[in-house]
Specification:
Elements (H helix, E strand, L loop, with lengths): L1 E4 L11 H7 L9 H21 L4 E5 L3 E2 L1 H8 L2 E5 L3 E3 L13 H9 L1 H10 L3 E2 H7 L4 E3 L4 H13 L3 H14 L4 H16 L2 H11 L10
Parallel strand pairs: 1-2, 2-4, 3-5, 4-7
Antiparallel strand pairs: 5-6
Length: 218
C-alpha cells in the first residue's frame, strides 16, 4: 500500500496563487496554448491518474487543509483520514479556474453530481465532520492522533492480501464506469485467479485453525 501526507501543517494547498497573480497567467506562461494543454494532461495522468490506477491501496492522511489540486490528489486516493481541525475546499472558483487533476471526476463519484456542483461552484470550506458525513473522508481523529491512526490503517493494509487488493481495486474502479456484465466478468476472472494463490490457501487454512493469516503477495 502507499500512504501520503502533507509536508507541514497542511496536506496540499494546490497552485501558487501569488505566483499566478504576479505573472498574470496561471496556465500558459512561456508555452503555447497547445503545449500548455499537453503538459497539463501529462502532469495530471502522472499524478492523480497514477494514484487512481495504482494497483495497490492508497491512503491520504490530511493534517490540515487540502485545497484545489491538493484536494484532487486526496480524492484520487482510495481512502482518506483527516485531523478534526483540517478542511477541504475546491477553491478553483475563487481564482477563476474550472478545476484540474481529476477533482471533478473523483468528487462526483464519491458524493454525487448535485453536491459536487455545489462545492465546486461555491468553493465553501468543508469541515472534517462534514466531510465524514458526505463521504469525502473515511475517518477523522484528533490532530495529535493522526500519525498513529494513519500508521495503524497503513500497517493493516500493508499486511493484507496484496494480490486480492489489486484485483479488488480494479473491480471497484471498473464499477465506477463499466456496464454490469463487464463488471461481473471481471469479478469472475479475478476471483478465480485469487483462488489459485498461496495467500488464499494459507488464509483458508488459518481461518479453519482460528489463526491470523499471513499474506505474502503470492
Amino acid at each position: 500500500m502507499c500512504s501520503f501526507n502533507g509536508g507541514g501543517k497542511g496536506f496540499c494547498a494546490g497552485g501558487d496563487v501569488k505566483g499566478m497573480a504576479a505573472s498574470g497567467d496561471g496556465t500558459v506562461g512561456t508555452n503555447t496554448i497547445d503545449s500548455a494543454k499537453h503538459r497539463q494532461r501529462v502532469h495530471q495522468r502522472a499524478t492523480s491518474g497514477k494514484l487512481f490506477k495504482m494497483p495497490k491501496p492508497t491512503l491520504a492522511s490530511l493534517p490540515g487543509a487540502a485545497a484545489g489540486a491538493g484536494l484532487s490528489y486526496a480524492l484520487a486516493c482510495d481512502l482518506r483520514i483527516m485531523a478534526s481541525n483540517s478542511i477541504l475546499t475546491t477553491a478553483f472558483a475563487r481564482v477563476g479556474f474550472s478545476g484540474d487533476y481529476g477533482g471533478s471526476y473523483f468528487m462526483t463519484q464519491l458524493i454525487g453530481s448535485a453536491k459536487a456542483r455545489e462545492l465546486y461552484y461555491l468553493s465553501e470550506r468543508v469541515s472534517a465532520e462534514e466531510a465524514l458525513n458526505l463521504g469525502l473522508t473515511n475517518w477523522i481523529c484528533e490532530p495529535e492522533e493522526l500519525e498513529e491512526k494513519t500508521m495503524e490503517i497503513a500497517l493493516r493494509l500493508a499486511n493484507g492480501p496484496s494480490v486480492a487488493y489489486r484485483y479488488m481495486k480494479e473491480n471497484l474502479n471498473r464499477a465506477m464506469s463499466g456496464e454490469v456484465d463487464d463488471c461481473l466478468d471481471l469479478e469472475a476472472t479475478h476471483h478465480i485467479h485469487c483462488g489459485q494463490t498461496e495467500d488464499h490457501r494459507n488464509a483458508t487454512k488459518a481461518f479453519v485453525e482460528k489463526k491470523e493469516p499471513v499474506f505474502k503477495g503470492k
